[in-house]
Amino acid sequence: MQSSTRPSATQVIYTDVTRNTISPLSSDISKQISQASFIAIDTEFTGLSLCHASPALGLNTADWNTRATDMREMYKAMANVAKSHALVSLGLSTYTHTSTGMFHVYNFNCILQEQNTHFINPASVSFLAQNGFDLNKQAQLGIRFFSGPNPMPLESRSADINLEGVLMRNVVFEMIRHKKPLVIHNGLFDLVYLYQSFFGPLPDSYESFVFDLTKMFPAGIYDTKFMAEKLELGTASFLAYLYHKNERIQKQRRDQNLKWLFIKQTEIVVKEKPSDAESHKQRSKKNARDVSLSSEKPYCEHFAAFGHCKYNEQCKRSHDIFFILDCQEKEKNDISENLSIDNEANTSSDQANGSTKRKRTDDASPQPSKILKALNSKHIQQSTTNDQETIEGSGNANAPVYHNAACDAFMTGYIFASLQIEHGDAINEFKNKIFRVGRGSEPLLIQASRYSSSSTTYKQTMKIIKDQKRDDCD
């Protein structure tokens, strides 16, 4: 397979939203939310579990088990984490389907700095730093806000801080006001953090939390991880892999003159341009790869399946998603070629012996033994190069940054739009079904129960949202 067959990756264009730009950008963000066909989000935060808490805190760690199998226990643990940790960024992508069939996309990278005292999980912060998150920028330019529905707590004497909190919170309120479909990727924690940070204190019960979500987002919540696992059985489902796979699918659809995903991205430029824009573009450039034959797979199979590898940069095999996809396509082609050769050989043998051609019941489904034989007969390796490119699980400075919240939100939206084009109305069955870690076949259902009701937080905050809308109309 020649490198020329590889589709070029889409350059993600986004606008940084900081404490210096939130004011001039707030009206533009609100406008794009109001016009969007759907909205995709991603968040980054200071922890997703409680690790090695100091005994001086006196915490019952049993209440912090975010891997609990019972959903009520899991929710209680996730709520504890979100109440004690903080969001550091919110990625927001608005996808607007135009009359020409194109999606017009705006990506916003909101850098946040919660003012409430909170915990920081060293592993989470280290992960962010290793994947390009600028902690210095977050400390100096993060949008300052206080968690909860009241953006102006008594202890804050700064009008600037209060204004930043009001404007950022209004972005989330706009998403609720305009009742747009919300798209996430394995995003249960995103929803929990978003609620706690900008909507109000999380409800005590899991049932009330779910009830509130159905009212906040009546157009539905879609999880692209769960969708991909059900629509594309047997494939990896981590974000970067799915994004690049769907890029290839859309290129193939375009080449076959089928309906395909065409997008146009727009950056909103303000006086303070994103400081990391140029470095991000440089990191996002792709190097060509040639594929050749070898006796072993040259890519990390664990990374290819799950998006991470315990050896990280010490792993001897490639973590380059483009290369992995090239290899997997080559493997698939090799299987087809081997099966074709086997069939031709069998046909020739039958004709030579004068045997009568018999119809096989398994013509449409090759025997598993032949598939394994074909897979084991030919493998691919990356040709020698001095500038190895990786995507995730690597410390390579040239690797694209996929843990920028805006980039992740864009990729999430792209996957959703791609699945929408490929599968049509079939995606409607995935409304309000969220992936559950460790229980992928049993999604979390976002649906109101007859035995539950909205929380006190919902009633109080929705009154604020409605009063603001009434003031805007006046």
From TrEMBL:
Transmembrane segment boundaries: none
GO-annotated molecular function: 3'-5'-RNA exonuclease activity; snRNA binding; zinc ion binding
Zinc finger residue extent: C3H1-type: 294-322
InterPro entries with a match to the protein in the record: CAF1_poly(A)_ribonucleases, RNase_CAF1, RNaseH-like_sf, RNaseH_sf, Znf_CCCH, Znf_CCCH_sf
Key word Iron present: no
GO cellular component, one term: Cajal body
Keyword vocabulary terms for this entry: Metal-binding, Zinc, Zinc-finger
Chain positions covered by the region annotation Disordered: 338-368
Entry similarity comment: Belongs to the CAF1 family.
UniProt-recorded name of the protein: C3H1-type domain-containing protein
Record organism: Coemansia brasiliensis
Taxonomic path: Eukaryota, Fungi, Fungi incertae sedis, Zoopagomycota, Kickxellomycotina
